[in-house]
Amino acid sequence: MSTSQATENSSNLTIFRDCLAPVIYRKFTSLTEEDSSDISDLAEFIEYLSHEVFLCIPASFQRLEYTGKDASAKDLALDLSTFPIHTIPTSFTDSLISYGLVGDEEDAEKLLMQVMEVYVSEATKPPPVWVSTRKAECEICERNVPLTYHHLIPKSTHTKVLKRGWHPEHMLNSVAWICRPCHTMCHKVADNETLAKDFFTVERLLAREDIQRWAAYQSRQKWGMRRG
Questions:
Q1: What percent of the chain has pLDDT over 70?
Q2: Short-list 104, 95, 96, 123, CA closest to 184
Q3: C-alpha–C-alpha distance, residues 209 and 150, integer Å
């Protein structure tokens, strides 16, 4: 992808970086067990990986946007099944392996597929409808950046929530306004059922030590891609 194309798709490049960041962060911290305040070069490493991969993914994925219909995981799998994985730069795979974040090339490809699924969902999601509850800052990292809405009780659990009496119906559409990386991290630390049952408020999410460490790290990150 040329410099002009990179500029044209810079918003999606940022989305991709924000989807990759929590995945790399969790793998890195699970290995090092360092406090987030001791991680000095992680943001630069994540940004480097983001550029390396985004330059090579198919143009149709670089230009994704909301079109009035959801992109399904099934469609994504079909599209990526024909994706020439060998076009992903060896620098991406080699970097993950050398840092001990993955075991081999196959693990690196699986990691990329997981990130791509989140990226497609984020890049094609419809505009927020919960305007009346919108916050000025992310409710997790407290940065003044573009926000997404996180269903505190994931929609996929609503039937079970009502059947088991975990929450009254009026709580089902509760949302938190958080930035994209924090949104992704919330879904990384617990599955949807656990989020619905135990972490259905921002306060409960922030009571988790892993979310506290992530928030401390993310609060220091600037929004947007650096131009070098």
A1: 78
A2: 123
A3: 19
pLDDT tens for residues 36-62?
Answer: 445 668 889 999 999 999 988 888 888
Tokens 């410099």 correspond to: 3
- pTM (2 d.p.): 0.67
- The beta-carbon contacts of 185-189 under 8 Å, at least 24 apart in sequence, are 185/22, 185/25, 185/26, 185/140, 185/211, 185/214, 185/218, 186/140, 186/150, 186/211, 188/22, 188/23, 188/26
Mean pLDDT on 75-90: 68
The amino acid that residue 65 corresponds to is E
Looking at residues 187-216, what average pLDDT do you find? 96
| Distance, CA of 44 to CA of 24 (rounded, Å) | 12
Selection from 140, 159, 160 nearest residue 150 by Cα = 140
Alpha-carbon dihedral of residues 145, 218, 58, 49, nearest 10 degrees? 140
Q: How far is CA 117 from CA 20, 49, 72, 175, in A?
A: 11, 17, 9, 22
* Amino acid making up residue 186: C
Q: Would you say 18 and 140 are in contact if contact means Cβ atoms under 8 Å apart?
A: no
Distance (Å, whole) CA 221 – CA 106: 30
